[in-house]
Amino acid sequence: MDRNVVITGGSKGIGRAMTDAFLNAGDRVVFIARGDADAKKVLEDRKEDSAAGRLFYYKGDVSSEDDVKGLVSFTLNNIGTCDVLINNAAIFRPGRVNENGSDDFDSLFAVNVRGVFLTSKYFIPIMMEKGRGSVINVASLAGLGGGYNMTLYSATKAAVIGMTRSMAMDYTRFGIRVNCICPSATMTEMFLNGNDDNVIRLYKNNNPSGRLGLPKEIADAALFLASDQSGYISGQALSVDGGLSAWNGEAPQPRK
Predict the structure, then answer these.
(1) In which domain, by residue range, is 144 found?
(2) Residue 68: partners with Cβ closer than 8 Å, 6 or more residues away
(3) 243 in any annotated domain
(4) Residue 60 falls inside a structural domain
């Protein structure tokens, strides 16, 4: 596709799947991550892309304004511009409100919401100069409805959905489409390591598809939203959830 793509949290889980998907599509990718170990594995696994000047890693934290400014400079120096911005970086901390501390609130909102704000603030002007671009925010089904034991996380993802819709109103007229993806439970390290087998079984049983999502399936949705095939789509929260968001919570009724 020959696009210039920036992916936050692009070294593992859904972000890694997106890094692979856009490279496989023929794009150039800059990804930011906080830790070297996973990032170095990406570079090793995709060393041909790195050697060809199609893959670059920037170490940083999206909640830091200085790091985001550094990411912008790094991107411009290495791939020249940004056509697609994917705000994927996020953290999860469980808990009910009475159990969470102020540090949980600050950490979750810093990465999950402030990070989206900062990268959008500094990359969107680059897109405005060109008169085109696509911003894809990774939210969650938890941002569209309530979830047990995850009030703060749900609040951050609801904020991302709200930001997506308002940003679309502001920037679509400049040729910049803004959408978000709302995955349900996906087979990532963050989800699988944080839940026991019984919880994972419940997630599968409650989903019409009978399974968890795959990171590649979320990445495929990002490819679509970044493509010309979605040229008239902006301000949308696309659920990629095996049909789970269609369920109203009623028990099955095997009537005759």
Answers:
(1) 4-237
(2) 60, 62, 115, 118, 119, 121, 122
(3) no
(4) yes
Instruction: Give pTM, 2 decimals.
Output: 0.96
| Active site (annotated) includes residue 232 | no
Q: Which listed residue (57, 58, 122, 153) is catalytic?
A: 153
Q: What is the pLDDT along the chain (256 residues), one digit of tens a residue?
A: 799 999 999 999 999 999 999 999 999 999 999 999 999 999 999 999 999 999 999 999 999 999 999 999 999 999 999 999 999 999 999 999 999 999 999 999 999 999 999 999 999 999 999 999 999 999 999 999 998 999 999 999 999 999 999 999 999 999 999 999 999 999 998 888 878 898 899 999 999 999 999 999 999 999 999 999 999 999 999 999 999 999 888 887 777 6
Residue 55 in contact with residue 79, Cβ under 8 Å? no
Phi, psi of 136 (to 5 degrees): -125, 115
Q: How many domains does the chain have?
A: 1
Query: What is the CATH classification number for the domain harbouring 50?
Result: 3.40.50.720
- Contacts with 147 (C-beta within 8 Å, 6 or more apart), sequence order: 141, 153, 154
